[in-house]
């Protein structure tokens, strides 16, 4: 299986491409925004493609050709305004979904926010609400397609070393999770076809990633 990792130069994306390249049955195609970001992935033996999420659907679809799955790990980041949140976390996500459809790629994994319900939007702090709104509608758009999707809702992200131990279910108590373990969950979800059509929250826990995914 070849997987296009959108947002590959992000922290989760780098972990994911590394794990994919270390696996036996999966290979990565890293979608990056600048050519100078390519060296990390080339050292791993991963194919790279330079595409900006603010490009049009046709350009993104060309990057999607030849893969079996797409993983959306991109994000505008904490230091941008609501405008970039809309352009990347919402429109960028929607464009990759449409590009996947155009390229005939049915498998799609979305890395969302922990809680993207309408209630979460209403209760979010003013500065965070645009992000939750963007993720909410990107999730809605994906659910309304015929793609073989999985939506992953990770808890608060940290940069601690991953343990490979998580808790995953349709709803879990709020908590943290290392970005490294989110990447492990993504790969396990890609390799387990029973995750198709499912969405779940995931935080640090006491089950192995494989056991947690199989128990969904």
TrEMBL record:
Domain NAD(P)-binding stretches: 7-192
SUPFAM superfamilies documented for this protein: NAD(P)-binding Rossmann-fold domains
Taxonomy, superkingdom: Bacteria
InterPro entries: NAD(P)-bd_dom, NAD(P)-bd_dom_sf
PANTHER family: FLAVIN REDUCTASE-RELATED (PTHR15020), UPF0659 PROTEIN YMR090W (PTHR15020:SF50)
Name of the molecule in the record: Sugar epimerase
Biological source species: Halobacillus mangrovi
């Amino acid at each position: 299986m070849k997987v296009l990792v959108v947002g590959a130069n992000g922290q989760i994306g780098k972990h994911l491409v590394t794990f994919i390249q270390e696996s036996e049955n999966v290979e990565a195609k890293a979608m990056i925004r600048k050519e100078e970001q390519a060296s990390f992935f080339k050292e791993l033996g991963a194919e790279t493609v330079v595409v900006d999420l603010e490009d049009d659907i046709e350009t993104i679809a060309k990057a999607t050709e030849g893969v079996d799955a797409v993983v959306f790990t991109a994000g505008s980041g904490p230091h941008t305004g609501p405008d970039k949140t809309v352009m990347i976390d919402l429109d960028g996500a929607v464009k990759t979904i449409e590009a996947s459809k155009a390229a005939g790629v049915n498998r799609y994994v979305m890395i969302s926010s922990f809680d993207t319900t309408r209630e979460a939007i209403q209760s979010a702090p003013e500065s965070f609400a645009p992000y939750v709104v963007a993720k909410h509608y990107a999730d809605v758009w994906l659910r309304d397609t015929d793609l073989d999707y999985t939506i992953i809702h990770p808890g608060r992200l940290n940069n601690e070393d991953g343990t490979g131990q998580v808790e995953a279910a349709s709803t879990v108590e709020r908590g943290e999770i290392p970005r490294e373990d989110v990447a492990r969950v993504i790969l396990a979800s890609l390799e387990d076809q029973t995750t198709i059509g499912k969405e779940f929250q995931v935080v640090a826990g006491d089950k192995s990633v494989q056991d947690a995914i199989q128990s969904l």
